[in-house]
Amino acid sequence: xxxxxxxxxxxxxxxxxxxxxxxxxxxxxxxxxxxxxxxxxxxxxxxxxxxxxxxxxxxxxxxxxxxxxxxxxxxxxxxxxxxxxxxxxxxxxxxxxxxxxxxxxxxxxxxxxxxxxxxxxxxxxxxxxxxxxxxxxxxxxxxxxxxxxxxxxxxxxxxxxxxxxxxxxxxxxxxxxxxxxxxxxxxxxxxxxxxxxxxxxxxxxxxxxxxxxxxxxxxxxxxxxxxxxxxxxxxxxxxxxxxxxxxxxxxxxxxxxxxxxxxxxxxxxxxxxxxxxxxxxxxxxxxxxxxxxxxxxxxxxxxxxxxxxxxxxxxxxxxxxxxx
Length: 324
Hints:
Helices cover 4% and strands 51% of the residues. The chain is mainly beta and 324 residues long. The strands form 7 sheets. The protein has a 4-stranded antiparallel sheet with strand order 1-28-27-26, with no helix packed on it. Strands 2-3-4-5 form a 4-stranded antiparallel sheet, with no helix packed on it. The chain is globular, with a radius of gyration of 18 Å.
């Protein structure tokens, strides 16, 4: 009831903001709960992990048709997070047995298994393909050599579990988001903390760098999105129109817009500079749990707690029509 009431209030206050556009595809991807989404760098393949009847599965989908390409993996226990390598040939999978497995997208074979000391909750490849980073439930972050699986750096500074990690576009900075309500920026080469970003009042659930690497966006359980200047750690804007935790955030390629997906079932489109709310997309019937956008900005995809994935074409949204 609360979610429907919140959406109704938003409609009454600003009905012109409500999007009428429909997704290009609605995929009944999992029985329930899309836990994580990842998009290949060429924008052609979408990976999802979620709960099915007796197992948790990792699946690959065609972005152009919405059809299932194949089921990459089936597990008895939850798959926490997934990430594509920059070349799209590998998919990293966080497992409940304290490992991260690197699966070959072509044949599904396990190329490498990385053993953690605790449960890995999130994973990311560096854009230059040199590193794989993992964020764990023992509050630590590990950086691994992506070629041979050797530990390069272990980063400690958070006081609670790591929820999300992202490399900057130049692979020089790693951002980590935690249940301790903070974000830490790390120098990848030295492993030293550059700065701590404080301002959220609850767990930080999602991160996104702008394509130029100058701005970092954070999504939080406190119902807000914030943007930060990477070079100084200065808070730039707070985006506060969601009525429930914000699970995920992405930038448009030109950095002028931000999209945020929330447990309130909506995706909001914002002006990234002014924090003006541009559009409200009533995206799913249940909470939005994941959101990704293609590198060329031509599409974005959202996942929901009810197991559905929706693929949206940005050309349908005038607010995003600047992208190809």
